[in-house]
């Protein structure tokens, strides 16, 4: 999925310029991406579109508020994933609604598919979808994850 995210971000300035649904799926198949990874990416983009209002309208918590995780979230989301999301929010790279969307989307996956790399990919897709410039240090991490660096050119 990280390869598809990099491919989309390199070819489209934002999610509004990207084809959706079947058209996007066919384009990704023609490029040669894995069908399973295409399906996950299309699901996340669909979820992002369906929940756009909730994501952008979420009220930011008070400075000393605390996010309490549901036991299922704690069961499936590793400490690395939770720490990463906390870091992104602490650094003001994502807002509360964006964090909640990433958690929501991760919980759609089978337990074995919930990894830090997938969380990073979702964060990148959210930033791209909201026309937020991806910070250089996150772009560097993305480049490290990619087995085919030419996708970012």
Automatic annotation (TrEMBL):
Xref: PANTHER family: PROTEIN SMG
Family: Belongs to the Smg family.
Record's protein name: Protein Smg homolog
């Amino acid at each position: 999925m990280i390869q598809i995210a990099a491919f989309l971000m390199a070819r489209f300035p934002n999610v509004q310029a990207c084809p959706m649904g079947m058209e996007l799926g066919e384009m990704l198949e023609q490029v040669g991406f894995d069908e399973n990874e295409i399906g996950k990416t299309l699901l996340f983009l669909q979820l992002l579109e369906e929940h756009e209002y909730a994501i952008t309208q979420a009220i930011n918590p008070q400075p000393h508020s605390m996010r309490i995780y549901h036991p299922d979230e704690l069961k499936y989301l590793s400490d690395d994933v939770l720490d990463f999301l906390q870091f992104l929010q602490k650094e003001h790279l994502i807002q509360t609604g964006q964090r909640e969307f990433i958690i929501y989307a991760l919980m759609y996956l089978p337990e074995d598919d919930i990894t830090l790399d997938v969380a990073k990919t979702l964060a990148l897709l959210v930033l791209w979808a909201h026309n937020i410039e991806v910070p250089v240090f996150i772009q560097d991490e993305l480049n490290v994850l990619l087995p085919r660096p030419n996708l970012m050119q």
